[in-house]
């Protein structure tokens, strides 16, 4: 029994002496790995340079947050999406930003912003697709419709995802002018947009894109009607409570459909002086969309207005709304009449080209209008 006990004690002693050997082996292995890693690192730096090593390591780093680029790009690139959560007050404030240096520090290509004010569907969209095809770098599109309307344009369409955050607008009310300012403000967020054209879903272009682009870009004036109408539908709508800010001698009337340059567009969206006066005192039978912009701009910038619109409408049939043209109205003679027989001033010189767009065209007019394009009556 004694010899067995001695053997057990000796076994325990040997076992206790062998335990420290395992951590020692791990420590030796760790130092060996460090030596190997150091040799590899020295070899890599010696043959490839430290910059390549750092670059290789950094290239695999993916930040877990989005960081705005620090250069000019964040200021000049158009918004990735037209959808935002800004209120009108925030939007107009943001859109009023303007650079003080006139010369752009990069090769800017000016665009035309085509702004469509519509209740919903755009039945003449295929005609506009033909007009715009091949000129994608020279235009942008914005659509203000009823908030409930969900457009169904395919991804290949120039109208795809071009709907801005909208609100309900009523004809003859300030909400209509608010919709127009909303379109301008959203379009101003793209620094490339230089001209802003307000259109409806019933408008069509009368000439090809190149002609329209150069006519507008070379104009020294913005196109907005602003005339003094002494009759009941002009001065007869004036409210004396608008004085002294708006005097009856400056009261103007004009077409709702305008074409303005960037400087004038900013003047419109930044206004906080005339808007509340017109909202309060110009209500039906004073139709604010015919008086607000023409009067305000006559007071502030009359010298830059051409005092005419380049969107043709036919009021010859009388009534509160212009004539609408359908399938049976569309032929070559019709367009010769619309585009010809006019004289106007363009850059202070007489011109026979006075209108570039026309309205109102019914959905039934689409097929014959496309035929006019195919037959080169409408050359686009």
From TrEMBL:
GO terms for molecular function: glycosyltransferase activity. InterPro entries: BC10-like, Glyco_trans_14. It is found in: Membrane. This is Core-2/I-branching beta-1,6-N-acetylglucosaminyltransferase family protein. Its main location: membrane. GO terms for cellular component: membrane. It comes from the Eukaryota. Keywords: Glycoprotein, Glycosyltransferase, Membrane, Transferase, Transmembrane, Transmembrane helix. Coiled coil: none annotated.
């Amino acid at each position: 029994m004694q010899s067995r006990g001695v053997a057990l004690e000796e076994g325990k002693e040997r076992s206790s002496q062998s335990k420290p050997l395992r951590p020692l082996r791990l420590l030796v292995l760790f130092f060996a790995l460090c030596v190997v890693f150091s040799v590899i690192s020295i070899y890599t730096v010696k043959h490839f340079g430290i910059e390549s090593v750092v670059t290789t390591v950094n290239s695999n780093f993916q930040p877990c947050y989005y960081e705005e680029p620090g250069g000019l790009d964040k200021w000049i690139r158009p918004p990735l999406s037209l959808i935002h959560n800004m209120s009108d007050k925030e939007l107009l404030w943001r859109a009023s930003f303007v650079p003080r240096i006139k010369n752009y520090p990069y090769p800017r290509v000016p665009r035309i912003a085509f702004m469509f004010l519509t209740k919903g569907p755009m039945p003449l969209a295929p005609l506009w697709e033909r007009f715009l095809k091949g000129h994608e770098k020279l235009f942008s599109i914005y659509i203000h419709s009823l908030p409930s309307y969900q457009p169904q344009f395919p991804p290949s369409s120039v109208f795809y995802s071009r709907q801005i955050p909208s609100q309900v607008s009523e004809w003859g009310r300030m909400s209509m002018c608010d919709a127009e300012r909303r379109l301008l403000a959203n379009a101003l967020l793209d620094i490339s947009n230089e001209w802003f054209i307000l259109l409806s879903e019933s408008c069509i272009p009368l000439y090809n894109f190149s002609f329209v682009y150069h006519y507008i870009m070379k104009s020294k004036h913005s196109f907005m009607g602003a005339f003094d109408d002494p009759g009941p539908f002009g001065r007869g709508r004036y409210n004396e409570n608008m004085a002294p800010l708006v005097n009856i001698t400056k009261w103007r009337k004009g077409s709702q459909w305008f074409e303005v340059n960037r400087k004038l567009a900013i003047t419109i969206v930044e206004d906080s002086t005339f808007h509340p006066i017109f909202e309060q005192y110009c209500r039906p039978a004073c139709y604010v969309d015919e008086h607000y912009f023409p009067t305000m701009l006559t007071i502030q910038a009359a010298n830059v207005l051409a005092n005419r619109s380049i969107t043709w409408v036919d009021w010859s049939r009388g009534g509160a709304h212009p004539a609408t043209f359908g399938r049976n109205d569309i032929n070559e003679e019709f367009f010769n009449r619309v585009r010809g027989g006019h004289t106007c001033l363009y850059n202070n010189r007489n011109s026979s080209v006075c209108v570039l767009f026309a309205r109102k065209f019914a959905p039934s007019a689409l097929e014959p209008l496309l035929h006019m394009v195919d037959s080169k009556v409408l050359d686009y």
